[in-house]
Amino acid sequence: MTDVTVTEHLLLHQKRTPQATGQFTGLLHDLILSGKSISRRINKAGLLDILGGTGEVNVQGENVQKLDAIANRIMKYRMERCGALCAMSSEEEVDLIRVSPEFPRGDYILIFDPLDGSSNIDVNINVGTIFSILRRPEGRSGDVDIQEVLQPGTRQVGAGYILYGPSTMLVLSTGQGVHGFTLDPGVGEFLLSHPDMRIPRQGSIYSVNEGNRENWDAPTREAVEWFHTCKTPGGENYSARYVGALVADFHRTLLSGGIYMYPPDKRKPEGKLRLMCEANPLAFLAEQAGGLASDGRGRILERIPSHLHARTPLFIGSPVDVEAVEKMYAGHAR
Questions:
Q1: Could you tell me the residue range of the domain that residue 262 belongs to?
Q2: Which of 77, 109, 125, 145 gets the most CB atoms within 10 Å of its CB?
Q3: What is the share, in percent, of the chain residues with pLDDT greater than 70?
């Protein structure tokens, strides 16, 4: 680990990152501050009686955990006041969140999942905050229209996640590679710990919830069977790993290679994961790190969302492994 903070790293790379204006850097500063605040509460969750559910159900039809609500409030409060945003969308909110006229507005749109995998907190497993940053189309002013937000992932100017686990880690890309920063509690700063992260061309791990096997389509069944029998570059069998928190499973895939799969099934033919707040930011990171992200039939980042909470299948990770799945889908399309 170096002594380079995330802010210093952004400033050092500002000349190579056109969108790294003062406004953009300020946005990331407040986003990081939000992550630190969420991390502090998660670390004390068992002591503050903030484990378990609220008894409410969110727009996704999922039970809301107490920390979901807390993380969402922290993100909304901090980011609405940062002066860089004109609108936000949260996985926990039905509608677009437009920045109030009482606060300064900027040119950016933030899409986020405040606490991915929150049901795992009760059993002390990794969770995370996922975020996507878009720029408002030029020439627009006043209240943001929903069509301004429904942009394909190719237009992201930044994306990343904050992983809360044994250590708190920020993984970030602004289109100039992927870099990881680990929170040093002693100084309260994210320090550069994983520069220029790269996904191995082929991995040795496949990650999927095989409990859903009976509901999968034929290409997914074929793909998973392929991972049961194919060999790694070293001639070994693939291993199965599944945390059940997207951000944690992806983080392992980013570091070690392999593939994470959340396919469509009979109950969710459009997929379960949210395109804008989950799949797009992770696909952006994957591609920046030399990997691939697909819905089985095409590039995730090229999909145009039909609404804020549009869903998608996701196959993401090492190029060789993702391409193998795409071949299965292509074979069934003929």
A1: 205-333
A2: 109
A3: 90
